[in-house]
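F.,

This is the one I mentioned.
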């Protein structure tokens, strides 16, 4: 069954301060964000009617734009409010929330000093990033050809659209070989992250995860570190070389979309879907759910 294209979903999209019908939320082909990747975005999830860690996401969106040299013309509180209103308007309690900000069409060259800064927020139903059955078995990852760039080469702390070019190439190459995703090394050849999620390993009852010095320090990553510490687990944030994967017992990915997803294979290395991965998966599920679920209007 062919999925409905994303430009043909139902409902309204919040665009520059007002709701517009889904099909009318359009941009012109001569948009700076499209040609020069002057665009930043967020990926958020609502559970039981509440957007998990909404303010952290809105703050990161504003900061991502600043790193790219532009100021979103709304405050963090206004962005939070617009996300919540869009969720309510769409009538979902469990959904994916996508704010995106970009430079418009007033100037069309590398320089875009006078371009309008636009902000849109779309909300749609989106159950699981990885196939739920595969998720419990552990997903398989290939090694990506591309590496996370040196922060001296690209604004790696920004959730900028341009940084996803190498992620899409890497994920497509992995999928063509039957894998669910790809693990990217960084420019120094150290383990970095998957194409849209952070990575953790387990060895001798302790967690190991790379230092996020050239890739996103995910909100889910930080949440899972807290949850692990609450369980009394030791979390080692450190440099991880790819050969070390031979000695790790378990592995999982974390991300707003991926949530906590166990990994069974990365290239030549195999992992068990073990107790710690399963426990943190369940702890994360409990953490994201508000104490009192908010009903859809
Ligand atoms: C490249 C990349 N790394 C990591 C993450 C995880 O970030 P978060 O947990 O904030 O969703 C994401 C998802 O946004 C991502 O796209």
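My design for it:
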């Amino acid at each position: 069954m062919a999925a409905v294209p994303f430009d043909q979903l139902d409902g309204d999209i919040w665009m520059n301060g007002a709701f517009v019908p889904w099909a009318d939320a359009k941009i012109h082909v001569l948009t700076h964000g499209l040609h020069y990747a002057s665009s930043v975005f967020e990926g958020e999830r609502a559970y039981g009617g509440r957007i998990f860690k909404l303010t952290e996401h809105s703050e990161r969106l504003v900061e991502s734009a600043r790193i790219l040299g532009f100021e979103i013309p709304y405050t963090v509180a206004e962005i939070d409010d617009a996300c919540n209103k869009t969720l309510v308007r769409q009538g979902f309690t469990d959904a994916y929330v996508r704010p995106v900000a970009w430079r418009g069409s007033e100037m069309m060259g590398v320089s875009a000093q006078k371009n309008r800064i636009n902000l849109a927020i779309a909300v749609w139903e989106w159950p699981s990033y990885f196939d739920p059955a595969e998720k419990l078995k552990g997903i398989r990852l290939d090694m990506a050809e591309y590496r996370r760039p040196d922060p001296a080469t690209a604004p790696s702390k920004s959730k900028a659209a341009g940084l996803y070019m190498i992620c899409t190439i890497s994920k497509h190459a992995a999928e063509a070989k039957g894998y669910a995703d790809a693990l990217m090394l960084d420019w120094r050849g150290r383990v970095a992250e998957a194409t849209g999620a952070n990575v953790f390993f387990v060895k001798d009852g302790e967690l190991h995860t790379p230092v996020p010095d050239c890739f996103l320090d995910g909100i889910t990553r930080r949440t899972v570190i807290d949850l692990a510490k609450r369980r009394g687990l030791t979390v080692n944030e450190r440099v991880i070389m790819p050969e070390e994967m031979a000695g790790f017992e378990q592995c999982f990915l974390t991300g707003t979309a991926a949530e906590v997803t166990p990994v069974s294979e990365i290239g030549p290395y195999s992992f068990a879907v073990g107790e710690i991965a399963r426990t943190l998966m369940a702890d994360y599920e409990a953490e994201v759910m508000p104490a009192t679920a908010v009903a859809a209007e």
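The pocket of pyridoxal-5'-phosphate is lined by residues 43, 167, 193, 196-198, 215-216, 218-221, 254-256 (CB under 6 Å).

Talk soon.
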